[in-house]
Amino acid sequence: MARYRRTDTGQNLAVSNEITGYAVSTFFYLHQRTGESAHLDRGLAAARFLADRAWDPRLQTFPFEYVAPGNGFAYFFDCGIIVRGLLAAWRATREPRFLEIATACGRSMARDFAAGQCFHPILRLPEKKPVACDHRWSRASGCYQLKSAMCWFDLHEISGEPGFLASYRQLLDYSLRTHDSFLPGDADPSRVMDRLHAYSYFLEGLLPVATEVACAAALAVGIPRLAGFLREIAPTFVRSDVYAQLLRVRLFADQAGVVPLDRDAARFEAECLAQFQSADPDPQLAGGFWFGRQAEEILPFINPVSAGFGLQALSMWSQYEAGGPPLDRHALI
Description:
Elements: E1 5-6, E2 11-12, H1 17-34, H2 37-54, E3 72-75, H3 76-93, H4 96-112, E4 114-115, E5 118-119, E6 122-125, E7 129-130, H5 146-159, H6 162-178, H7 189-205, H8 213-233, E8 237-239, H9 240-255, H10 263-274, E9 292-294, E10 297-298, E11 301-302, H11 304-321
Antiparallel strand pairs: 1-2, 1-11, 3-6, 4-5, 6-7, 8-9, 9-10
């Protein structure tokens, strides 16, 4: 799966292992909701690509980009997203290869990225040396990494290995201690919007243990804080994925009984999110979600992650409104 499509030039970026991991989760969620075999087929194809081609068995990791196996970089966050995609494929098919690679990657993440109380965000390959952090959130350790660390919680549920749970708990403790300082984090409102996307990852990463006192308190503070910044900045720059992430976490937090759902706010966010879904007749654009909007201008990017988050958030909102079955945390894209 390409990182995103430039609709103004008709070009895709290079294949991304991380985005392919998100795509696997998206396809299996769609298959779960619709039963359509096309989604199962595409999910399997993407999962097999990750397990059989993108995985580097010598280095025991997933490189940042598929075009540079054995070289370049490995990202902690990307690896966790890929593991969760492979686990989605394994739950649906029980193909042993998916769980085997997911488990191997989970172990290497805990081993290779360890940095005292936290985890390095990036390693240089093939030597697996940490890359120096800088001011960009994606190039620094932070609470946003908790979304990726959910893979350890999931692996522990499956295998019972205590090391996986210990690694998740380590990053959970670090995140709870540091998340207050993550926002706003920058004087530029557009960069703050990007950090809202990252902060949403922290809130999502709390969901496996949402009912624990400290986690419930963080959700109770974090959800309105995220919503406040989003509404403040949206008139000048807004990302569709932030609407989707906020809506999803509202629903899960309400379902867990830790933050009662603000239905008016959730409905507003669903309506804003729906405006980003493309009605273009071009089959490469139809149904996709635009990345964002600058003032009144839609930005010319159709983003697979924005699409996955957007379709899932609207589907979950519809399911919730209709009083459908409980939402499945494992299905969270």
